Amino acid sequence: MAVLVTGGAGYIGSHTAVALHDAGHEVVIVDNFANSSPAAVDAVRALTTEDLAFVEADLLDDDAVRRVFEQHEITGVVHFAAHKAVAESVSEPSRYYRNNVGSLLGVLDAMLEHGVDRLVHSSSCTVYGQPEVLPVSESAPVRAASPYGRTKLVSEQIISDVCAVRPLAAVMLRYFNPVGAHGSGTLGEDPNGIPNNLVPLVMQVAGGSRGKLPVFGDDYDTADGSGVRDYVHVVDLADAHVAALEVLAGGHEGATAVNVGTGSGTSVLELIEAARRVTGKAIPYEVVERRPGDVAKTWAAVDLAHDFLGWRAKRGIEEMMRDHWRWHCENPGGYRR
Ligand code: UFG
């Protein structure tokens, strides 16, 4: 009896594989290393068990997906595998739809064929765009500003439609901004090429491998003018998946979207200050133009996560910075040693 983790070599997937193992689940990882490394699977095995099952497969390959379900006794699926770069999705929308929606459909078909009725799906706060009311709750209107965001919206709709008519129940976790790393320092975020996201860039500047951090705008309608996000520690986020699977095992029906954040916002300038305190390094920055497509501010309403999943984020921004910094210092080249 195992939990299938698609995209389990990725940033959130790898931490979730460890959390599931720690909670007593057997884990099968599937990944095609499109944006991850075999060394991440080695790192997960080192923290869990050398026997942890891994299958290298593309989820668009229906036969390969079917084989995974035939060869392992899967009781539930945590589906991460997806492309996730907003700018890339704007220039290559069809590739994003094909991959993100196609892989979900393949997983759903295989689940239904094999009588697997529990799905935890990786969604994003990007489905809200700029919320009108903060903190943003799950009942707020959805509108995504990029093809990437729309793949997440469409995926939620597909899952809801399938859950309405077939024996399938799902929790769709809308992640806010995951940062941090496993406390061991052996598992973390390893973006290909130049990172898009703030915290990996902050760490590179603190570590001296990048000169200056561009701050995308200081004239937003926020306390200090810089963008505000709800950063959530990746280990807390991983635990939310374990909690979601438990809720599904308890017989929950239908498809439910749940925010996963801390419930409070941190500005870019506040985050730089926290990173400076934790690392003891100067983090030079330069305010530049706003980044197209960015929202000014967003943070999560977390009542549903608490009431429905029994989950709450435990780690604050300093712990996020400390753990991300440890990972960065111990693995300056990421998994490519
Ligand atoms: N930022 C900078 N400088 C940088 C990078 C980011 O100032 O070099 C700022 C952004 O403007 C934003 C904040 O840091 O205010 C966070 O930016 P990230 O790129 O780390 O995260 P986003 O909130 O933009 O992105 C997240 C997810 C995406 C998702 C997107 C939807 O990482 O997957 O929200 O808006 F699609």
Textual characterization of the structure:
The chain is an alpha/beta fold. The protein has eleven helices and 13 strands. The protein has a seven-stranded parallel beta sheet with strand order 3-2-1-4-5-6-11, sandwiched between helices. Strands 7-10 form a two-stranded parallel sheet. Strands 8-13 form a two-stranded parallel ribbon. Strand 1 (2-6), helix 1 and strand 2 form a beta-alpha-beta unit. The mean pLDDT is 97. The structure holds uridine-5'-diphosphate-4-deoxy-4-fluoro-alpha-D-galactose (UFG). Uridine-5'-diphosphate-4-deoxy-4-fluoro-alpha-D-galactose binds at residues 84, 86, 124, 126, 148-149, 177, 196-198, 201, 214-216, 227, 229, 268, 291, 294-295.
Write a compact overview of the structure shown.
This protein has 337 residues and is α/β, with parallel strands linked by helices. Helices cover 41% and strands 18% of the residues. It starts with a strand and ends in a 7-residue tail after the last helix.
Largest sheet: 7 strands, parallel
What's the overall geometry?
A: globular
Number of helical stretches of at least 4 residues: 11
User: Which ligands appear in the coordinates?
Assistant: uridine-5'-diphosphate-4-deoxy-4-fluoro-alpha-D-galactose
What percentage of residues falls in helices of 4 or more residues?
Answer: 40-55%
The counted number of beta strands is 13
* Derived structural class: alpha/beta
